[in-house]
Amino acid sequence: EIVMTQSPATLSVSPGERATLSCRASQSVSSDLAWYQNKPGQAPRLLIYGASTRATDIPARFRGNGSGTDFTLTISSLQSEDFALYYCQQYNNWPYTFGQGTKLEIK
Amino acid sequence: EVQLVESGGGLVQPGRSLRLSCTASGFTFRDYAMSWVRQAPGKGLEWVGFIRSKAYGGTIEYAASVKGRVTISRDDSKSIAYLQMSSLKTEDTALYYCSRVASSGYLLAFFEYWGQGTLVTVSS
Question: For the segment A8-56, what is each residue's pLDDT rounded down to a tens digit?
Protein backbone atom coordinates (compact mmCIF):
# COMPACT_ATOMS: atom_id res chain seq x y z
CA GLU A 1 0.00 0.00 0.00
CA ILE A 2 1.29 3.43 -0.92
CA VAL A 3 1.50 5.75 2.06
CA MET A 4 0.75 9.40 1.42
CA THR A 5 2.32 11.83 3.88
CA GLN A 6 1.14 15.43 4.02
CA SER A 7 2.99 18.29 5.65
CA PRO A 8 2.59 20.30 7.66
CA ALA A 9 -0.33 18.96 9.69
CA THR A 10 -1.45 22.52 10.36
CA LEU A 11 -0.53 25.63 8.42
CA SER A 12 -1.30 29.11 9.73
CA VAL A 13 -1.42 31.80 7.05
CA SER A 14 -2.87 35.29 6.87
CA PRO A 15 -5.58 36.15 4.33
CA GLY A 16 -4.06 37.48 1.14
CA GLU A 17 -0.84 35.53 1.59
CA ARG A 18 0.24 32.35 -0.15
CA ALA A 19 0.03 28.83 1.27
CA THR A 20 2.05 25.84 0.11
CA LEU A 21 0.95 22.36 1.12
CA SER A 22 3.07 19.28 0.54
CA CYS A 23 2.25 15.66 -0.17
CA ARG A 24 4.77 12.85 -0.48
CA ALA A 25 4.17 9.32 -1.71
CA SER A 26 6.08 6.33 -0.37
CA GLN A 27 6.71 5.25 -3.99
CA SER A 28 6.15 6.83 -7.35
CA VAL A 29 2.55 7.52 -8.35
CA SER A 30 3.52 9.23 -11.59
CA SER A 31 1.05 12.12 -11.96
CA ASP A 32 -1.92 10.18 -10.59
CA LEU A 33 -2.48 12.58 -7.74
CA ALA A 34 -5.58 14.53 -6.71
CA TRP A 35 -6.21 17.23 -4.12
CA TYR A 36 -9.46 17.80 -2.25
CA GLN A 37 -10.81 20.52 0.00
CA ASN A 38 -12.95 19.51 2.95
CA LYS A 39 -14.98 21.84 5.17
CA PRO A 40 -17.05 20.72 8.17
CA GLY A 41 -20.61 19.89 7.19
CA GLN A 42 -19.89 20.17 3.49
CA ALA A 43 -19.16 17.72 0.73
CA PRO A 44 -15.47 17.39 -0.06
CA ARG A 45 -14.55 19.15 -3.27
CA LEU A 46 -12.12 18.04 -5.95
CA LEU A 47 -9.56 20.76 -6.62
CA ILE A 48 -6.80 19.20 -8.69
CA TYR A 49 -6.30 15.95 -10.60
CA GLY A 50 -3.46 14.66 -12.68
CA ALA A 51 -1.23 16.49 -10.18
CA SER A 52 -1.75 19.85 -11.89
CA THR A 53 -5.10 20.07 -13.70
CA ARG A 54 -7.70 22.21 -11.99
CA ALA A 55 -11.15 20.69 -11.70
CA THR A 56 -14.22 22.42 -13.07
CA ASP A 57 -14.89 25.86 -11.53
CA ILE A 58 -11.78 25.82 -9.37
CA PRO A 59 -10.21 29.29 -9.21
CA ALA A 60 -6.82 29.89 -10.77
CA ARG A 61 -5.30 30.70 -7.38
CA PHE A 62 -5.18 26.93 -6.74
CA ARG A 63 -2.16 25.36 -8.41
CA GLY A 64 -0.91 21.81 -8.23
CA ASN A 65 2.58 20.70 -9.07
CA GLY A 66 4.86 17.67 -8.92
CA SER A 67 5.23 14.13 -10.18
CA GLY A 68 6.65 10.87 -8.94
CA THR A 69 6.72 11.11 -5.17
CA ASP A 70 6.65 14.83 -4.33
CA PHE A 71 3.69 17.12 -4.86
CA THR A 72 2.59 20.57 -3.79
CA LEU A 73 -0.65 22.48 -3.71
CA THR A 74 -0.16 26.23 -3.73
CA ILE A 75 -2.95 28.62 -2.96
CA SER A 76 -2.02 32.18 -3.82
CA SER A 77 -3.72 35.16 -2.21
CA LEU A 78 -5.76 33.23 0.36
CA GLN A 79 -9.44 34.04 0.62
CA SER A 80 -11.54 33.49 3.73
CA GLU A 81 -13.30 30.55 2.10
CA ASP A 82 -9.98 28.75 1.53
CA PHE A 83 -9.41 27.96 5.19
CA ALA A 84 -10.23 24.28 5.39
CA LEU A 85 -8.78 20.80 5.43
CA TYR A 86 -6.89 19.60 2.36
CA TYR A 87 -6.21 16.03 1.36
CA CYS A 88 -4.10 14.49 -1.35
CA GLN A 89 -4.95 11.11 -2.87
CA GLN A 90 -3.07 8.77 -5.19
CA TYR A 91 -4.85 6.70 -7.80
CA ASN A 92 -1.88 4.99 -9.35
CA ASN A 93 -2.02 1.77 -7.33
CA TRP A 94 -4.62 -0.24 -5.42
CA PRO A 95 -5.66 0.48 -2.82
CA TYR A 96 -6.15 4.15 -3.54
CA THR A 97 -4.91 6.07 -0.51
CA PHE A 98 -5.25 9.50 0.99
CA GLY A 99 -2.87 11.61 2.99
CA GLN A 100 -3.80 12.40 6.57
CA GLY A 101 -4.65 15.98 5.68
CA THR A 102 -3.36 19.51 6.24
CA LYS A 103 -5.47 21.97 8.15
CA LEU A 104 -5.13 25.46 6.71
CA GLU A 105 -6.06 27.96 9.40
CA ILE A 106 -6.20 31.71 9.66
CA LYS A 107 -3.18 33.30 11.24
CA GLU B 1 -25.92 20.19 -11.30
CA VAL B 2 -24.49 16.95 -9.96
CA GLN B 3 -26.00 16.01 -6.61
CA LEU B 4 -25.30 13.04 -4.39
CA VAL B 5 -27.38 12.52 -1.26
CA GLU B 6 -26.48 9.81 1.23
CA SER B 7 -29.00 8.35 3.66
CA GLY B 8 -29.42 5.41 5.98
CA GLY B 9 -26.89 6.23 8.66
CA GLY B 10 -27.60 6.08 12.36
CA LEU B 11 -26.78 4.35 15.62
CA VAL B 12 -26.34 0.60 15.36
CA GLN B 13 -25.10 -2.04 17.76
CA PRO B 14 -21.89 -3.97 17.11
CA GLY B 15 -22.49 -7.08 15.03
CA ARG B 16 -25.59 -5.68 13.36
CA SER B 17 -26.09 -4.65 9.75
CA LEU B 18 -26.91 -1.41 8.00
CA ARG B 19 -27.56 -0.34 4.43
CA LEU B 20 -26.61 3.09 3.18
CA SER B 21 -28.04 4.64 0.04
CA CYS B 22 -26.68 7.28 -2.30
CA THR B 23 -29.25 8.96 -4.51
CA ALA B 24 -27.78 10.67 -7.54
CA SER B 25 -29.12 13.36 -9.83
CA GLY B 26 -27.87 15.78 -12.45
CA PHE B 27 -26.01 13.23 -14.58
CA THR B 28 -26.55 9.91 -16.36
CA PHE B 29 -25.95 7.63 -13.40
CA ARG B 30 -25.53 4.40 -15.36
CA ASP B 31 -22.52 5.83 -17.22
CA TYR B 32 -20.38 6.33 -14.12
CA ALA B 33 -18.49 4.36 -11.55
CA MET B 34 -19.45 5.16 -7.98
CA SER B 35 -17.57 4.87 -4.74
CA TRP B 36 -17.87 5.01 -0.99
CA VAL B 37 -15.31 6.79 1.17
CA ARG B 38 -15.44 7.10 4.94
CA GLN B 39 -13.98 9.35 7.58
CA ALA B 40 -13.74 8.20 11.18
CA PRO B 41 -13.99 10.89 13.88
CA GLY B 42 -10.79 12.91 13.95
CA LYS B 43 -9.26 10.82 11.19
CA GLY B 44 -8.54 11.20 7.51
CA LEU B 45 -10.35 9.84 4.48
CA GLU B 46 -10.42 6.11 3.76
CA TRP B 47 -11.59 4.60 0.49
CA VAL B 48 -14.12 1.79 1.09
CA GLY B 49 -14.95 0.51 -2.37
CA PHE B 50 -15.92 1.15 -5.99
CA ILE B 51 -18.53 -0.17 -8.35
CA ARG B 52 -17.97 0.24 -12.06
CA SER B 53 -20.68 1.03 -14.55
CA LYS B 54 -22.50 -1.84 -16.25
CA ALA B 55 -20.62 -0.97 -19.44
CA TYR B 56 -17.50 -2.25 -17.65
CA GLY B 57 -19.16 -5.20 -16.04
CA GLY B 58 -20.36 -3.46 -12.90
CA THR B 59 -17.34 -4.98 -11.19
CA ILE B 60 -16.51 -4.03 -7.64
CA GLU B 61 -13.32 -3.36 -5.71
CA TYR B 62 -13.17 -3.28 -1.91
CA ALA B 63 -10.66 -2.05 0.59
CA ALA B 64 -9.02 -4.84 2.57
CA SER B 65 -10.30 -3.34 5.83
CA VAL B 66 -13.93 -3.99 4.89
CA LYS B 67 -13.74 -6.84 2.37
CA GLY B 68 -16.09 -9.65 3.33
CA ARG B 69 -18.23 -7.39 5.50
CA VAL B 70 -19.55 -4.91 2.95
CA THR B 71 -21.33 -5.17 -0.37
CA ILE B 72 -21.63 -2.35 -2.85
CA SER B 73 -24.41 -2.46 -5.42
CA ARG B 74 -26.26 -0.15 -7.73
CA ASP B 75 -29.73 0.30 -9.18
CA ASP B 76 -29.33 2.26 -12.39
CA SER B 77 -33.11 2.50 -12.87
CA LYS B 78 -33.32 4.51 -9.65
CA SER B 79 -29.90 6.22 -9.82
CA ILE B 80 -28.98 4.82 -6.42
CA ALA B 81 -25.79 3.24 -5.13
CA TYR B 82 -25.85 1.13 -1.98
CA LEU B 83 -23.41 0.16 0.72
CA GLN B 84 -24.54 -2.86 2.69
CA MET B 85 -22.52 -3.31 5.85
CA SER B 86 -22.68 -6.35 8.11
CA SER B 87 -20.95 -7.53 11.30
CA LEU B 88 -20.38 -3.90 12.15
CA LYS B 89 -17.55 -3.01 14.52
CA THR B 90 -16.99 0.06 16.65
CA GLU B 91 -14.14 0.99 14.31
CA ASP B 92 -16.66 1.29 11.46
CA THR B 93 -17.99 4.44 13.14
CA ALA B 94 -17.51 7.14 10.55
CA LEU B 95 -19.06 9.65 8.19
CA TYR B 96 -19.71 7.74 4.97
CA TYR B 97 -19.46 9.65 1.72
CA CYS B 98 -20.70 8.64 -1.69
CA SER B 99 -18.70 9.83 -4.67
CA ARG B 100 -18.85 9.78 -8.44
CA VAL B 101 -15.61 8.44 -9.83
CA ALA B 102 -13.71 9.74 -12.81
CA SER B 103 -12.57 6.89 -14.97
CA SER B 104 -10.90 6.09 -18.23
CA GLY B 105 -12.68 3.02 -19.43
CA TYR B 106 -12.05 0.23 -16.96
CA LEU B 107 -9.50 2.25 -15.02
CA LEU B 108 -10.82 4.15 -12.03
CA ALA B 109 -9.24 7.35 -10.88
CA PHE B 110 -10.20 10.20 -8.60
CA PHE B 111 -13.39 11.26 -6.89
CA GLU B 112 -15.09 13.97 -8.97
CA TYR B 113 -18.17 14.76 -6.91
CA TRP B 114 -19.09 13.97 -3.34
CA GLY B 115 -22.17 13.97 -1.18
CA GLN B 116 -22.28 15.49 2.29
CA GLY B 117 -22.13 12.12 3.96
CA THR B 118 -24.21 10.09 6.39
CA LEU B 119 -23.01 9.31 9.89
CA VAL B 120 -22.80 5.74 11.11
CA THR B 121 -22.21 5.19 14.80
CA VAL B 122 -21.53 1.67 15.99
CA SER B 123 -21.98 1.43 19.71
CA SER B 124 -23.71 -0.69 22.30
Answer: 999 999 999 999 999 999 999 999 999 999 998 899 999 999 999 999 9
Fill in the amino acid letter for A107. Answer: K
Amino acid at A82: D
Task: Assess A58–B contact: CB distance below 8 Å, yes or no.
Answer: no
**DSSP label of A81:** G
B87-120 burial, b if ≥16 CB within 10 A, otherwise e? ebeeebbbbbbbbbbbbeeeebbbbbbbbebbeb
Kindly indicate the confidence band of residue B103, based on its pLDDT and cuts at 50, 70 and 90.
confident
Q: Any chain A CB within 8 A of the CB of B63?
A: yes
- The maximal CA–CA distance of chain B, rounded, in angstroms, is 43
B-chain CB neighbours of A41 within 8 Å are 116
Q: Which residues on B lie below 8 Å from A38 (Cβ)?
A: 45
Which of B23, B25, B110, B119 is best to mutate for the A interface (most A CBs within 10 A)? B110
